[in-house]
Amino acid sequence: MILQKVNQPQDLKTLTQEELLQLAQELRSEIIRVCAQNGGHLASSLGAVELIVALHRVFDSPRDRLLFDVGHQAYAHKILTGRKEVFHTIRQEGGISGFTKVSESEHDAITVGHASTSLANALGMAIARDTLGENYHVVGIIGDGALTGGMALAALNVIGERKPRLLMILNDNEMSISENVGALNRYFKEYQTKKWVQDTQKWGKQVLEGISPRLFSLVDRAKEAAKLMLHQENPFYAWGIRYVGPVDGHDLPGLIHILEQIKELDGPTLLHIVTQKGKGYGVAEEDPIYWHGPPGFNPQKPEKVSKGYSWSAAFGDAVTELAHKEPRLFVITPAMREGSGLVKYSQTHPERYLDTGICEDVAATVAAGMALRGLKPVLAIYSTFMQRAYDQIIHDIAIENLSVVFAVDRAGIVGGDGATHNGVFDIAYLRTVPNVQIAAPKDALELRAMLKKALELGGPIAIRYARDNVEKAPEGVWPEIEWGRWEVLKEGSKAYILAFGKTLKYALEAAQDHPEIGVINARFLKPLDKGMLEALALEGYKLVTTEDHQKMGGFGSAVLEALNELGLKPDIRVLGLPDVFFDHGSIPRMHREAGIDAAAIRAALAGMGLEVKTATRRV
Ligand SMILES: Cc1ncc(C[n+]2csc(CCOP(=O)(O)OP(=O)(O)O)c2C)c(N)n1
Ligand SMILES: CC(=O)[C@@H](O)[C@H](O)COP(=O)(O)O
Ligand SMILES: [Mg+2]
Prior knowledge:
Its EC number is 2.2.1.7. Residues 309-473 form the Transketolase-like pyrimidine-binding domain. With 619 residues, the protein is of the alpha/beta class. It has three domains: 2-292, Rossmann fold, CATH 3.40.50; 311-464, Thiamin diphosphate (ThDP)-binding fold, Pyr/PP domains (Rossmann fold, 3-Layer(aba) Sandwich); 487-606, Rossmann fold (3-Layer(aba) Sandwich), CATH 3.40.50. The chain contains 24 helices and 17 strands. A seven-stranded mixed sheet has the order 7-6-8-9-11-10-15, with helices on both faces. Strand 16 (542-550), helix 22 (555-566) and strand 17 (572-577) form a beta-alpha-beta unit. The protein binds thiamine diphosphate, 1-deoxy-D-xylulose-5-phosphate and magnesium ion. Thiamine diphosphate binds at residues 44, 47, 70, 72-73, 113-115, 143-146, 173, 175-177, 277, 335, 358, 385, 388.
């Protein structure tokens, strides 16, 4: 086992070519083994194995800085940089992160999880290096999907003008999570050389080198000159960036050779490598979409497993049905077709579907344009990724009170993806924006009712739901809903729990067998049901609010502000996430630790003098 001899990147420097090839295979096996037990970003990491071995062979991390965009493809990097003994803990409770993370290792140049940041970060590092008179390499590694992000394209524009010594590597597997989209991607697909030209180049090189290495280098230079002439419109030339490639991203010796050739080049260079997402593991090669982020599986007999009927699926079914009735409905996703439950919708209504690529800002403003011209856009977007569209929501949508529905998925703590992916800020950053309304359905039926009503009401409306399963609503059923009105789910004689979204289940659990405790589905946050709130306060009920969101600025804050405006001071406790980031791990454990679960609710009630059976708090 070569991997036994490798603990740090410098251990690669002495390996032979055969040992490096063997190491790549061993890395692949280890990634499959651990993803089989933990789940994780399997296909992306398999596709980047040779690249990562070559990078650590040619460069000297941590002195040289390797920046992995998104960071989900860096499993081999983690194993090679002192974490092979803990790699099996990846994405687990107390284990290492599923993305690169600065606080986890000196070899992790950036903390990521959101796409398209690597090039701007690399530019910043290169400028810092040059300003401080230091000398090391900065390498930004970005996928074709992440390159669809505006941040990445804008960074290229700055890099091309500033021209720092910087190496960028485009890891082009023609895949985002779904098939990749965008004009640049098309360009590479159609215009740039692909497999057949790769093979021709390789064959030509072997023939020419067989005749005379000198002849080969002459032809190679002529080819480069021709490429320059033929490919002047190559966008990277337009950006003032040297373009090299495309080369085979799985040819380990070839990658090492080319990296050594271009390593010392001055100015910005982009090396375009062509890889296969899922490389080396049949099922992942055949279906890189499912195997992008599978749950655990049997490595000997890998089979797709259903993750159950999710809120995303409920949303997808609802808009698919709605589209038949509402011809102006148009659904947009920023590169998350599968995650947002839109596969079926995209197949049944392709003419009213747009995948913008990984650019949530563009997606939001495209929705604004559609609304201005008579469509009814629904933007399906993860809470965490919606952070990328904050100004667009204000500037392009809310000021003119445009009719855009935000189907905000992954609201709350998400589990394995950790701090970069928790959807725990959206209430705070949305509720202060005039015209924006915010709701959270308790089940799939209420989601349908809210979607339908939101499209009728118009204006910017966010409907948020968690990364969780939900009971499927019967097809064709579209209940009405009294917009802005909360729903009493359980009467109480002394106290009421006001729950927003996912924590409703904890409220019902806490109130079970307690006639003195009532439960309210506080499904509207903006507008808040001030009428019901006032009545509860005036009748002297004790109140507890709970939400899967930062306490600061969340649902509870809105309730406190409303009570203040009403001049009322009931006995109230606000339960929400504390002012910290929650890393990857078990959602129930984090909810318990955050104090938003049933035990915390009972403890809060007990703290207000209500005799409740306090559940034994697990430590
Ligand atoms: C801002 C943002 N939006 C969406 C995502 C979800 N996401 C994670 S990886 C990915 C696809 C990345 O494609 P690519 O960069 O080509 O990497 P590959 O998986 O193909 O190796 C997407 C859309 C994200 N991480 N960040
Ligand atoms: C790396 C990335 O951002 C996505 O793959 C994300 O992990 C998907 O999250 P879900 O698994 O919740 O769809
Ligand atoms: Mg890709």
